[in-house]
């Protein structure tokens, strides 16, 4: 750095000496330090500029956005896989036309619908693991939905399934249960028709309790192309309070009715008559010229 020189006059007093010259500026080791810091600052500026250009290049900064994020007239557009480490708030999330929309998470996925007071009205949770004593067991647990009512409808708006606190409605024309063990109803079931698939058998079974079928206008059991079997361990009751019980068939067999004791009087025949006890029990008695039910009343005891 050039040094500045100036001449200093001490007023009007005469002096035998010549004018004095003072050196003004930075020189010596200070000058070298200044040059070093200026050079270091230029290097830092160049490095900073290079790093900025590299970051812009790697992050794919453009006028329209950054990386997979693009700014459009309708909002933000994400291309490819995107990861959000914090909650995402958006009015609408939709995929590109013709493509599916995927939500992936290493843990649970929760969707909340809030009201104006930020209280949860509807919630959908996919649980990843069971937590017992602070330890998480790997593997999926369940999909849970919380709300006042749950509905499933077709594209045309027809109700297929709905559930609330009062009832569960299945609006489909047919309900099929594909499990090998069938369907279990701990309480009663109300339906106008129970039908099996074609060429499949229909079984109504109560392994440990009784099975009761009631209807105000009658119960009809019909097997058009097969046999019908009613089996119980203790008691089978057919009751009609105001009407009659009609057995309409070409053959009616009661093979396990008890037999009355045979008496040697009269000729032995292979013809029997059905006798009814006072308690309603039926038994067979060998037919004779007259009724033999009175002879075998010991069966009624």
From TrEMBL:
Keywords: Cell membrane, Cytoplasm, Cytoskeleton, Disulfide bond, Glycoprotein, Membrane, Signal-anchor, Transmembrane, Transmembrane helix. InterPro entries: Sarcoglycan, Sarcoglycan_gamma/delta/zeta. Belongs to the sarcoglycan beta/delta/gamma/zeta family. PANTHER family: DELTA-SARCOGLYCAN, SARCOGLYCAN. Pfam families: Sarcoglycan_1. Its main location: membrane. The chain crosses the membrane at residues 33-56. It is found in: Cell membrane, Sarcolemma; Cytoplasm, Cytoskeleton. This is Sarcoglycan delta. One of its GO terms (cellular component) is cytoskeleton. It is a single-pass type II membrane protein. It comes from the Eukaryota. The keyword Cell membrane applies. It comes from Bos taurus. The gene is SGCD. GO terms for biological process: calcium ion homeostasis; calcium-mediated signaling; cardiac muscle cell contraction; cardiac muscle cell development; cardiac muscle tissue development; coronary vasculature morphogenesis; heart contraction; protein-containing complex localization.
